[in-house]
Amino acid sequence: MRLARFTEFGKKIICVGLNYKLHVKEMKNSLPTTPIVFLKPPTAYVINEGSIRIPKNCQELHHEVELGVVIGRKGSSVNENEAEDLIGGYVIALDMTARDLQSKAKSSGKPWSIAKGFDTSCPVGNFIPKEALPNANSLDIWCKVNGQLKQKGNTSDMIFTIPHLISYISQYFTLEIGDLILTGTPDGVGPVNSNDIIEIGIGDISKASFKIE
Ligand SMILES: O=C(O)/C=C/C(=O)CC(=O)C(=O)O
Ligand SMILES: [Mg+2]
After folding, report:
1. What positions does the domain Fumarylacetoacetase-like C-terminal occupy (predicted)?
2. What is the 2 CA–ligand 1 centroid distance (Å)?
3. How many domains are there within the chain?
4. Could you report the per-residue pLDDT of 62-100, keeping only the tens digit for each?
5. Residues with beta carbon inside 6 Å of ligand 1?
6. Which of 40, 103, 135, 204 would be 44's cystine partner, CB 3.0–4.6 Å?
């Protein structure tokens, strides 16, 4: 098992949307009754200190800081009690979103894939082994743009808990070593522009930084 290299080509990036009440409110959506799941391709990865590209035709690129769960053991159709065993570790991550392309897709009933899955849409910090983060269900996650705090949330505010998400997703997708689950963003999402610096972190435990090209 080479979890330190979970960003290597070929792994699934499974994202959960609308998992924090205040973000649901700021997006003027209704509360989900089951997790909202979508995918990014592995070409979305950017590692710490890399660059994020604004995708073609996007005029409104948003930051969404999220806790990422890295899968350390293969599993399918697991229940919530078994879910913990599948976790290998965590990362702080961004679900970069071409908000204008997403809104356009939503209003015409089309998929979000380009708006959420373009190259460089999944910047990630360094891998944190599970043992180093025993309280993943109560962590401060934050995002700064050019030094200004834009997002500050706590994973205890998730609508669907990490074990619930793992169990739910595993009913549909076999989870494999190195897969990443992004667990949704808290409120405060907003636009970024060329040359902006985005910093993200988990309290003072982990920090990563990215530049918008
Ligand atoms: O439905 C919307 O307007 C937006 C949904 C998202 O972007 C969902 C997420 O990616 C999230 O909540 O993290
Ligand atoms: Mg998101």
Report:
1. 12-208
2. 31
3. 1
4. 999 999 999 999 999 999 999 999 999 999 999 999 999
5. 15, 17-19, 23, 27, 29, 64, 95, 97, 184-185
6. 40
Ligand 1 pocket test, pick from 66, 114, 183, 185 with the greatest ligand atom count within 8 Å of Cβ, gives: 185
Q: How many Å lie between the centroid of ligand 1 and the Cα of residue 93?
A: 15
* CATH number for the domain harbouring residue 170: 3.90.850.10
Taking phi first (over 0 means left), then psi (-120 to 50 degrees means alpha), and beta for anything else, what does residue 10 get?
A: left
- Residue of the CA atom closest to atom 6 of ligand 1: 17
- What ipTM is given for this predicted complex? 0.98
**Residue range 15-29, pLDDT digits in tens:** 999 999 999 999 999
Q: Which is nearest to 68 in space by CA: 82, 50, 89, 96? A: 89
Of 15, 16, 20, 27, best ligand 1 pocket probe by most atoms within 8 Å of the beta carbon = 27
Residue 208 CB neighbours (<10 A): 23
